[in-house]
Amino acid sequence: MTTSSPETRAPIRPTRLLLTGRFARRVHEHLESWGTPIRLRHAAEPSAEDLSWADSVAGWPFPDPDGTGRYVWAHTMSAGLDAFAPYTDRFEVLTRTIGTMPEQMGRYAQAWVLNHCLHTAHYVRAQDRRTWEPRRTAPLPERAVVLGTGPIGAGVARALESLGIAVVGANRSGRDADGFSRTAPLRQIHPELERADVVVSALPGTEETAGILNDDLFSHLDEALLINVGRGVSLDEAGLRRALDAGRVTGAVLDVFETEPLDEDSWLWGEERIHITPHISAQTRPVDIAAALHEAVLAFERGEEPPTAVHLA
């Protein structure tokens, strides 16, 4: 996608916002109660007339995939952008929902690190077998690498640092990022991986990140815990299997998969060192969607770019 930079794009003034999807009615109610200064309409499954009425759309996935309409503003009711990326020529500005997702994903990562140290999964299986199988509790990890330094990655970093874990963030350029005391370029992260006890991927699903959790990355790990809360397309599953067998990864927590739901025949289900959750590390709340939309509308009213605007290239 090619977008104008915030400095060169002329201010836009959306006037008619169509809310779609399963949260549409509840988001509408929030915005109406707050007096958000924009005309609103909601439809779980929008009609052609709904779409022609709107100059802006919000939903998940993209509300008008088969049409030709163009919109001044599109908003994804998720932190992820992949469902909107194919339609970037159909809108001028894209915003997204962040809300409490950083805190939710931070708690998720924190909980699984503690579960790993406490051998929780082992005791669940032992209880199923009705066997008494004590294990020595592992010490808390000392170092973690978080791949992706956006709001989600920053939330994970804060949660891990609250456990006393030193966190290094990795992004494309190695630029400084809020929530991280240290960062490094993604393609030069190998020295940090060699010292990491935990690796968390909070990467978006892009061509650049596809398959990045692979043999090359795993070869730099030594008995690390892997957590993926980003996108399933980032993980080379065959590479993960080899890393587990080689002891470079001692456990993996997977919340996202390239195909969801995960196929019931996938080998991942039967691997005791892998823990699977059904894309629940953070869940969208209608009030968070509404707050992001309200904030964006007020920014447009001031002639400013919304703080949740995304620039894809």
From TrEMBL:
**UniProt domain D-isomer specific 2-hydroxyacid dehydrogenase NAD-binding: residue ranges:** 113-281
Q: Name one GO molecular function term.
A: oxidoreductase activity
Q: Does the keyword NAD apply?
A: yes
Keywords from the UniProt entry: NAD, Oxidoreductase
Record has Metal-binding as a keyword: no
Classification via Pfam families: 2-Hacid_dh_C
Q: Which PANTHER family is this protein grouped with?
A: 2-HACID_DH_C DOMAIN-CONTAINING PROTEIN, D-ISOMER SPECIFIC 2-HYDROXYACID DEHYDROGENASE NAD-BINDING DOMAIN-CONTAINING PROTEIN
What this protein is called in its record is Phosphoglycerate dehydrogenase-like enzyme
- The organism named in the record is Helcobacillus massiliensis
